[in-house]
Please model this.
Amino acid sequence: MNALKTLLYFSIFKYPLKRDEIFSFSDLKNKVLLDEELSQLLEKKAIYKINDYYLCENNSLHVERRILGNSMASDIFPKAIKVSNFIAKFPFVEGVGISGSLSKGYHDEKSDIDFFIITSQKRLWVARTILVLYKKIFLLNSKKYFCVNYFIASNMLEIHEKNRFTATELITMIPMCGKDVFQSFYKENQWAKKYFSNYVKKDHQINTVKKNFLIKLTERLLNSDFGDYLDIWFMKFTYKKWKSKFKNLDKASFDIAMKSTKNVSKHHPQNFQKKVIDTLNEKYSKVKKIHNITLEHEHA
Model:
């Protein structure tokens, strides 16, 4: 039941899907099989169809919400492009991608613009600290258009948490700057294809990361033993602060939501990944109870 798994996943976000989108987020062999599954699910009333959209709740407001959110995403995207190019100019930033809801073509008044940032090796925490200080000082800590909550170093590009949530985020991410490093990133994360073998990324221009003289000079000065020391100090300082601030998270949750290593920095205090997977598994159990359809549970 590939189609049902896909629709249940996106139902968490109240986001109906069109037929071709369902196929993209599946590993079904062909669309004939998809149509057969959709027909069975409609007959069981496990799903519904409103106009061109399939959804798990018979609620037209979800369709209206999606259409409005798609329109708002189109309006805000030029802003996201400008911010991406701006972030790419910071020291030790090698790649910038748009993630979160905007990468899926949705935005509303409550949405942030989320960025996935690839940094130079051994300088992830220097790059992160500079970007966070810029946000705190010049943007008064507003993350509305500058949500920099996921960093990964260019020498360790594989995403270790491999599940439906991370696979969805990975394949829908929109690389904006750093073509070469993103090519390496996708090569290291071929595992996501086992979830969505039919997904084809749309071609678009990925800008080259260009640094001005001052940034190049900063990078040169910090490519030293002092830079090594500074990067480790920033990591330890941030980790200690987060451990104190987010005492509500148990160790397992903290290690995923606030991952802090030399090559990865995540700042997801709500542990959204686990919440999504847990909610999805609850939906699987409900489907089994109501429609007698068994779906293999996901892991976080």
In short: The chain is about 50% helix and 10% strand. Residues 79-269 form one domain.
